[in-house]
Give the backbone structure.
Amino acid sequence: MIGDRQFNSRLIMGTGGAPSLEILRNALIASGTEMTTVAMRRVSADTHGSIFDLLRELKIDVLPNTAGCYTAGEAILTAQLAREALETSWIKLEVISNEETLLPDGLETVRAAEKLALDGFTVLAYTNDDPALGKRLQDVGCAAVMPLGAPIGSGLGIRNPHNIELMRSLLTVPMLLDAGIGTASDAALAMELGCDGVLLASAVTRAADPVGMAHAMRLAVESGLLAHNAGRIPKRWRAHASSPQSGLIGTDARESPEF
Amino acid sequence: MISIRLNGTEEQFPDGSTLAEVVQHITSATQGIAVAVDAQVIRRTEWASTALRPGAQVDVLTAVQGG
């Protein structure tokens, strides 16, 4: 549940990096996603239409992002343009600090989030794995907070699981792990740590077999959630036998049988 | 003729051109696009009645694969 919407799938798949629209189409279907991200860019002969038409055909909701924005002002204008073009007030807010790391600029993100929330947007904010910053984003009205596991497209997984777990315990709004996922076990871990969902793109679109990886991600998110809810066993330093310790053959004589 | 900056490129349009005509010049799409003039969003319903001043910066955006 994000904002006023109930989702069956907890996986949001991004569309960036797919080798072709046909592969993207099949990967989206295999992922079971109900919402997918798009970027807003100036029209040109080769960009027109296609992704918009594909999402309509698949009946997948569109979640525009503000990727590439460096300031709150740029992100707000991009969100307003997305609302006008795509007729949705949902926005994945992403304000980055530099081109090389694509790490979020926390101050600009909070600034933009506050204005967008006041303007009626449903804001899903991409952020650092910083519990205090996540709290700020929640307080200014974000519908969901989305910490990174590692830099965008890095595939490094969840570098600081402790922060993700801590952040989840401090926030009341939905929290989605966004960025850094490399393979299925990363997505499962995100869910095991208590995340409400996972947002990923590159891990699927740039995999050797995007459709196969999309399927793996769907199952990983489902598995991770089931495991989280089922409650994992505590970790121990020593073994804890799962077979009975009594009734072993030869235990009466306390001697090994002779052969 | 007036000169405007359309998606980052200098372009000439007849005097009195409306925003709707400028948008048509760059794309045939009518859905899935949005327009900003001098960094202000102009609603679709206002395109036909919006006249352009010389030097205006017009951006026409659409959704592409991303993120």
Observations:
- The mean pLDDT of chain A is 93.
